[in-house]
Amino acid sequence: MYAYDEIDRTLVNERVSEFRDQVKRRLSGELTEDEFKILRLQNGVYLQLHAYMFRVAIPYGTLATNQMRALAHVARKYDRGYGHFTTRQNIQFNWIKLAELPDALADLAKVGIHAMQTSGNNMRNVTSDQWAGVAPGEIEDPRIWSELIRQHTTLHPEFSFLPRKFKIAITASDHDRAAIRIHDIGLRLIKNERGETGFEVLVGGGLGRTPFIAKTIKHFVHGRDILSYIEAILRVYNQYGRRDNIYKARIKILVHELGIEKFSREVEDEWQQIRNSSLQLDDEMIEDIRSRFTYPAYEKLPHMPDELRQAAADPDFEAWRKNSVAPHKVQGYSIVTISLKPTGGPPGDATAEQMDALADLADKYSFGEIRVGHEQNLALPHVAKRDLPALWKALDKLGLATPNVNLITDIIACPGLDYCSLANARSIPIAQELTRRFANHELANLIGRLHINISGCINACGHHHVGHIGILGVEKNGEEVYQITIGGRADENAALGTLIGPGVKFDEVADVVEDIVEAYLALRERPEELFMDTVKRLGVEPFKERVYATR
Amino acid sequence: MTSPLEQKKIRIAGPSVVTANRTWDGIVVYRTAGKSWSAELSEAAIVRNSDEAKALLAEAVADDVGAIGPYIAPVQIGDDGKVLPGNLREQIRRTGVTIGQPAQI
Amino acid sequence: MPLVNGGKIVDDSFVKLAVDTPLPEGGDILVPAERFLGEADVLLKRSGKVGVIWPNNRDIAELVPYLGKIAAVALVFPTFRDGRAYSQARLLRERYDYRGELRATGQVLRDQFVFMLRAGFDAFEVKKQADAEAFMQTAKRYSVFYQPTGDGRITALHRRMQLRHSEGVGT
């Protein structure tokens, strides 16, 4: 956990009082909506279909239990009793009143939570691997660097009015759980040949109307130089990024139009001028941030405790354990993913009661720490293996033990037309129907790892381009129509999916997905060949044939 | 921001209302004939041609403190004279999400 | 439009010239970049002070040869959402060591003041009277800053280092 000090607390409180003043001026008419819009966006407040939506940052996906309880409190007191965890390690509340927002922010500030830059054309929440600090084989805990970058980019005087939003994600593992290749800047922690810590820097990834996979701009930037290197990228982008067309304003378009070579030369020229400045981090500064991340006092525990051995006889427990429990870097401990994808439920939603109960469970079983991942699930990062059976029972009672992590019903979906003013079509009901179709665990397990991603418009908040099966809702002649892609992925081998054919109607989407899955089961060479590997081997044609043969 | 009045030529295909979200709490509201806002679609002023629509929208835009993001939305008038939303988006804005909200435990 | 300079509302001694306004005999003038670069020799020989209005899409490096000779640079915010002039301001102050008046013009509103001060602006053509009057109060809104700029305010990282050393807790 990162512990705020007085300096961090002061800044958050100053931000709350500034926003309180801004809301007051808006409600009195001193600020027009045109003037206020950017101010509320800089503090995570959107206008959606039914009400204002309030997005709260969960930097690098790490939450303490008192913070989780504060989120539950906000859901209960200021909203309708639930929240929605997003693909960027944020949580959204859907019914917040503008007049009450300053109070909600003040309540969150007490536990070191804020909503700064969760929207608007600035640096968004810095995201990371939800298993940071506990996954085996990491170079080092990426959250130390995430926090350094978070601080550096918070209320940045030069980069708070960029051409468009800007997202950074960091991973320190070979397996990328942070989807860094679809971010404006992706950072991969590595060591150079001298054993020094630094980053491979990728730039220009992003989805939306014009999707791009990020390209490597520099193979190694030393850790001490990372702030100046990011500053150089941002300065080039701030000056040259397009501002004439919102759809061409992201850095991916600038990188594409200039070409990565020219873009990287511009960045390099700028960087050489600023790298030996006060932006350079010395070891003591890094150590200071590092020292404020505390780690549990792990016990020395056996690899295979009796409790776990006994519970293995229960097939329901085993089904859950097999896809929810991952290896921890410390023997005797596990990382437990908590599925927020119950059958028939909206992906990523949690009630205030669930949040409170999870906080209690985290206190009891996970040293008071909870994580949020970009797949819209939660995790308990430090669970002793002997506690797994008891934890499972408790989660099951809360409706939080659906054994579907990484399976076909572990769907990523944007809020879609049920909430979002940008959406053209609904996403959540599609997800709900799919979770019902594939509710049979044996079937889901037989299918194996398969990610479905659903977006309700071209802005791609549901990351449909990188879903193994991607579903994009559009509107055609007043009707919802869905375009299906296959073969996308968001990990270290990130790729964009390929459209399989004409769009299909709302009622047909689940049937089409069933057809695709049946085709895969018939076509795969062996049970271990995952969906995405079959698509890679055979291309989209056989799937296309299957889907459209009878339509 | 371009004013909604300038965005494009206002043309309506059938009976329409002006809708927005109330500034202080964000709820869906409709412009009434009495130059104010109502949460009830049944109290909305109905416009039937482009000039009326433009005038009603202009009046709504002028009330920037009262409500935000006003725009013209289609409605259907039932045989009994009842006013209904004219498309799915407006239907959802009026009656809420089409999904169950997460079950309370 | 009130001008704030040195934290106070002041009279503006500068007169803005358009591209084709006849050059006045004396007095301080602010001249569009294009005209300034074309007539620099003539303009700089006049008795009054000369400043340049520099658009936010033109390389600020072009102005470098003149920085020692001009009294003011006015950077432009065509809308408050367009942040290019923040980069130009920092380059002028931090890279090119410009010490004259650095003025924010265009859509300059209260909620940008802190960013602008941190980027190096010291004069502000404020759009609204109430915002201009609230300048000092707004400028003091923040006491914590996470990033170093040319304004010399100490960053959180450096302050923590000072605290560590003064408290002797440097472990």
UniProtKB/TrEMBL annotation, chain A:
Keywords on record: 4Fe-4S, Heme, Iron, Iron-sulfur, Metal-binding, Oxidoreductase
Protein origin, superkingdom: Bacteria
Domain Nitrite/Sulfite reductase ferredoxin-like: 52-110, 346-397
One Pfam short name: NIR_SIR
Entry keyword Heme: yes
Gene3D superfamilies for the chain: Sulfite Reductase Hemoprotein, domain 1 (3.30.413.10), Sulfite Reductase Hemoprotein,Domain 2 (3.90.480.10)
Keyword Repeat listed: no
Nitrite/sulphite reductase 4Fe-4S domain location: 119-273, 408-547
InterPro entries with a match to the protein in the record: NIR_SIR_4Fe-4S (IPR051329), NiRdtase/SiRdtase_haem-b_fer (IPR005117), Nit/Sulf_reduc_fer-like_dom_sf (IPR036136), NO2/SO3_Rdtase_4Fe4S_dom (IPR006067), NO2/SO3_Rdtase_4Fe4S_sf (IPR045854)
UniProt protein name: Nitrite/sulfite reductase
Source species of the chain: Bradyrhizobium agreste
From TrEMBL, chain B:
InterPro entries, sorted: DUF2849
Lineage, highest ranks first: Bacteria, Pseudomonadati, Pseudomonadota, Alphaproteobacteria, Hyphomicrobiales
Pfam (any one): DUF2849
Protein name as annotated: DUF2849 domain-containing protein
UniProtKB/TrEMBL annotation, chain C:
Top-rank lineage group of the source organism: Bacteria
Organism for this UniProt entry: Bradyrhizobium agreste
UniProt-recorded name of the protein: DUF934 domain-containing protein
InterPro entries documented for this protein: UCP030820 (IPR008318)
